[in-house]
């Protein structure tokens, strides 16, 4: 078994990482109670969802660390949850601006810059798009499709895996793993692109609500949960990460990725508690900004 195969330093590492996961869960529960009591109901569930991303990924990684055969299911669970969180983050930015109607009134004569990462950061020749109800709908659709289609593709992967057709580390063109992974990667890029377009527009307006640190935490989760894990898995598949009996290269790479995620998600959980717990002033209605110049003109 796993516990008998560990030496003393290994058992201490596993115990420490498990303790960090439990602390992250307790910190999140305490933060969720605070949000439920102090935050308006219109924003409450969205902020709880976003704050739950790091503890959920830490928990699934801890389960995968203790039960190696569950790695595929734990990774899929974390992936499904975070696909929903990406959509929730975009909705949170709209809510912080006062809702969709208020956002459209604030930026009625402005435009979205779509030449932003991760899809079109080099395409500076792309036109700027007017901010309308329709363009805002397409941004929301960009994250919503990811929250819907990724769970469907993951369910398809599990069905193929139970039938023996899906092998997680088999990236040959003849296998379904490569094509499903590429399709999920394309959906991820479109969802992150939609969030980046809206963030680039509202970051100055929402600076008083610390939207930049919140966006940075969200980006860190994306990079660590997707890019870091993918790089480690590729290194393990190519046997650049050496095997350490009784662990193969792929199993050892999976262990390294899970242990790193537990530590990183613990830090992000603690930092998120500080960033989201502050009390921020509500934005002034857009009418005031329009009324002030009129009053100044009428004063003489």
From TrEMBL:
Gene Ontology terms: cellular component: membrane
Location in the cell: Membrane
InterPro entries per UniProt: Ostalpha/TMEM184C (IPR005178)
Primary site of residence: membrane
Protein name: OSTA protein
Membrane topology according to the record: Multi-pass membrane protein
Organism: Grantiella picta
Record-annotated membrane-spanning stretches: 12-34, 46-67, 73-91, 137-158, 178-199, 211-236, 256-276
Keyword line: Membrane, Transmembrane, Transmembrane helix
SMART domains, per the entry: Solute_trans_a
